[in-house]
């Protein structure tokens, strides 16, 4: 009985100690420090959500800006081509549906007995006639390829421009199509393919108005490939061959950048 009476106060003491500890924990949980910490965490979460929303808005605006720039670029290209071809169409026009041979492609016949007369070319194989082009279908296919590019469907655009060049090799739009094919690869950062396609433009259409832009993009592509010497050479050619143009200005700016980065020696 004495032992039981002794144990009761000990149990009461343990219970009182537990209640005291619980009260201390409750006071700590109710302390201003934890409340402020919770508030800070909540504020940071709200700020993170706000920043995430702003980033999404900015990404959408950047994508819209890129599309507007592409629309403008394509529209300018179309207008320039219309102006470039207006002079040709305003001169001696070819009958509808008849292919026009490039300048210098057909040599005139000289007087009888000359080197180019029929009598001097007995047994020679006559050159194959140029394919007859449908100007309406030709323009439609070119505009379709541009529309695909305008929608940033680059792989399909490359296929469309390649198909156009194959179907209309003598087209007045061929140099433009070749340029845009190179542009597709440049935009998608396939710089080796871009160099190849722009190089075809320079080789096949040396007098094209697209040559300055193609040379500039070749320099940019070589820069991205870290071929500093080749980049400097072609950009220098742009500056020399097309002075006082926006293309030459861009080429000069890239050359200055290369000097600051230590890729080429400053003069």
How far apart are the termini? 109 Å
Tell me the helix content.
over 70%
- Per DSSP, the total helix count is 9
The assigned structural class equals: mainly alpha
Strand content: under 5%
Task: Describe the main β-sheet briefly.
Answer: none
User: How many beta strands in the DSSP annotation?
Assistant: 0
Could you explain how this protein is built, in words?
- The protein has 267 residues and is an all-alpha fold.
- Among the domains are: 35-72; 133-189, Tetratricopeptide repeat domain (Serine Threonine Protein Phosphatase 5, Tetratricopeptide repeat, Alpha Horseshoe), CATH 1.25.40; 210-267, no CATH class.
- The chain contains 9 helices and no strands.
- The protein has helices spanning 2-29, 32-90, 135-150, 154-167, 174-187, 191-204, 211-224, 228-241, 246-260.
- Helix 4 (154-167) packs antiparallel against helix 5, helix 5 (174-187) runs parallel beside helix 7 and helix 7 packs antiparallel against helix 8 (228-241).
- The longest helix has 59 residues, at 32-90.
In short:
The chain has 267 residues and is mostly helical.
What attributes characterize this protein structure?
267 residues, mainly alpha, Serine Threonine Protein Phosphatase 5, Tetratricopeptide repeat, 0% strand, elongated
